[in-house]
Specification:
Elements: H1 2-18, H2 20-25, H3 28-43, H4 48-67, H5 73-83, E1 87-89, H6 96-108, E2 114-118, H7 121-137, E3 142-145, H8 159-166, E4 170-174, H9 175-185, E5 201-205, H10 207-213, E6 219-225, H11 231-240, E7 248-251, E8 256-259, H12 261-270, H13 282-296, E9 304-307, E10 310-313, H14 331-338, E11 347-353, H15 355-359, E12 364-369, H16 376-383, E13 387-389, E14 399-400, E15 404-406, H17 409-425, E16 430-434, H18 437-449, E17 455-457, H19 465-472, E18 478-482, H20 497-500, E19 503-507, H21 514-521, E20 531-538, H22 542-546, H23 550-559, H24 574-620, H25 628-642, H26 648-659, H27 674-695, H28 699-735, H29 742-770, E21 773-777, E22 780-784
Parallel strand pairs: 1-12, 1-13, 2-4, 2-5, 3-4, 5-12, 14-20, 15-20, 16-18, 16-19, 17-18, 19-20
Antiparallel strand pairs: 6-11, 7-8, 9-10, 21-22
Helix pairs in contact: 1-4, 1-5, 3-4, 4-6, 4-7, 5-6, 6-7, 11-13, 13-14, 24-28, 24-29, 25-27, 25-29, 28-29
The structure holds adenosine-5'-triphosphate.
Length: 786
Amino acid sequence: MNNLELRHLKKDLKAINALKDEYAKLSDSDLKNKTQEFRKRLNKGEKLDSLLPEAFAAIREADKRVLGLFPYDVQVLGGIALHRGYIAEMKTGEGKTLTATLPLYLNGLTKKGAMLVTTNNYLAYRDATEMGKVYRWMGLTIGVNAYDESKGKEPQYKPEEKRVIYGSDIIYTTNGGLGFDYLIDNLADSKDKKYMRDFYYAIVDEADEVLLDIAQTPLIISGAPRVKSNLYAMSDQFITMLKKDQHYEYDEEENKAWITDEGWDFAEKFFRIENIFDNKHDELLRHLNLALRAHKTYEKNRDYVVQNDEINLLDDNNGRVLAGMKLQAGQHQAVEQKEHVELSDNTRSMATITYQSLFAKFEKLSGMTGTAKTVEDEMIESYHLKVVQIPTNKPVIRKDYPNKIYTSLAEKLGASLQHILKLHEKGQPVLIVTGSVEVSEIYSELLLQQGIAHNVLNAYSTVKEAAIIKEAGQKNAVTVATTLAGRGTDIKLGKGVAELGGLAVIGVELMPNRRIDMQIRGRAGRQGDPGFSQFYLSLEDKLIIRRGIETLHRYHRNHADKGDLRNPREIKNPYIKSLVKMAQSYNESSEQQARQQTVEYDESIKIQRDILYAQRDKLIYAKEDIDAMKIIEEGIDNHLATHKFTDKNDVLRYILDNFNYNYEGLPNNFELTNKNIKKILLEIASKELTRKQEILVNKHQMQDFIRVAILKAIDTQWVEEVDVLQQLKQAVISRAQAQWKPTYEYHKEAKKSFDRMRVNIKKSAIKYLLQSDVSWKKGKVEIYFA
Ligand SMILES: Nc1ncnc2c1ncn2[C@@H]1O[C@H](COP(=O)(O)OP(=O)(O)OP(=O)(O)O)[C@@H](O)[C@H]1O
């Protein structure tokens, strides 16, 4: 299969290579003028595909002149694959950054926006800065939705600045930045606050990480805070007094903790209540569980870090801070309480999207990574993306040694340290990659004890990332890093290092999947460089404990106390070794199942969100006037269809609640028929709208008001709906049993809830249109919603 696809790509490569000499002879200005020429031809109807050979030849030549790098044939092949909407699997260090310039230039010619999406700020900013030069030289604009972390905090862009970024020919952004911007753009209540264009073309860098691993965590924008609770502090204090196996139990494999009967008895005594399971103590019960989880299942420096008096979650896949992400439903506050930092607002989510849905919005999607083949089926299923493997430019000469496995953590530390010391003695640079901040600190401590100077790169030190990476390939360098240095990081070898054997990569934990292993190994042996990689594992590695293979646990129990740091004994038993591998593949399949579940549950909210956002856009970009009376009438009809007014007071209540809270009363001779009720309601509405029109002077301002009021109705109801769906999902999952398809139940309920929301939107619209106050101050409309 791969060969067939490669053959197709090679045809284009041939055409591009045939133009090589001709383009090399062009003067700088003739080369730059090609952009205009291509754009003219596009305008006349020529297709991108037919421009491909010339455009690729042009940008390739420009890469050489501006960046000093002439894309190799294999990179051109990769570039063509990216244009054609494949995932180009190019081995680590083959130069994907440069490869992307080719299809980005070609697709940027359309002026519809060609995006390079990557996992983190450091990579996005680095690549945009380096590659930006060549696009500008060729007369294309580039927008950068990332910033230099060493120079300070994230800039807060105004909508007009975002519009410039997203309006550029080529855009470099992080996936998180893009997702949040999409959600914020869809919270705008007027044209001048919107900045996104329709999504056209994207190349997703580190495609497997972004599209699969990170895609497990949906993006959430938080909104109005819920009432603050003092139960966090009380619950936290209580939990710290509990004794393990008496008051609570903890299952390490599942990373689950629960309070025992004895624990609950203790709680009843402590809080002086009779029955904690009584409904009136629901909130306390919930907070106790949150506090228990905060203490027993969330670990500092593994799951989160504490920075600037804040809890920042860590991404399991790459050890980086998950910018802007919070644990939901009060869990975040419980962890804050545990760490004694100020409690943030416990907000409900206002808008949310998964990456699966976000990327489905691109007209054309492609991706690149060093590791995609093992997950090709999933890529096809979730994104319709096929993988094509691109050959390397030079053979990879890096040596990947088989894993060394030890029983205990101490033995693993001892063995790996001996190896590191030996390498360091001869001056070979070493990169030690750990699975958590905690372990990175242990290694740092051990190295200090040996008097070895080294750098530590983890979530606490990302501001120094570029500087640390620059040093990491020099003679004598020792770098301890979490997996955040495991992808994209380009470590260049210093003078004399190749002769010493290149970079040595020492991995010191069993990683969640093989792709992460390969990426870590791939920090060495780039561009045909020498280098090697070696993993040191132990039966106390997190993944082995979590994946619970009984034979391994038994082996561990029987052997753990016999070894120590100074006397590490490697496990040679092939059966035990194969079980360690199995723990990793178990984990891979459960990761995949979890992703499948995310996709399945996402279907409802995806459909609902699309309908709702389209409705919002229709209002924001409405060419014709919005007929407020028509919307009010529909709301009245809805109400009359579902509600039977029993007497005049009932009608009056409805008017006071929804139409006019100063309403004086119905006429004495009012006859209670639906027709009459509707008539009087329409009269009140029409009078109120006329009054507002008088205040707002002209029709244009009145239309602005109507639009904002209806958007407000949509948004408030949508916030409710997002919350309802989230809770519904939790409820359905916790009820899930065998032979019962929870997703079916979920989608059925979600549909009902959506229909209710549509009715409620109209109801709220009436309220916001009629019961709000408008004023006209200093040439601006001011609106107060009750
Ligand atoms: N055509 C070229 N000629 C010379 N050097 C090149 C060329 N292409 C790339 N390089 C160099 O190769 C190195 C690796 O490039 P890059 O970091 O883009 O690799 P990558 O494929 O993204 O790796 P990873 O998979 O680890 O992210 C860089 O130092 C880059 O300058």
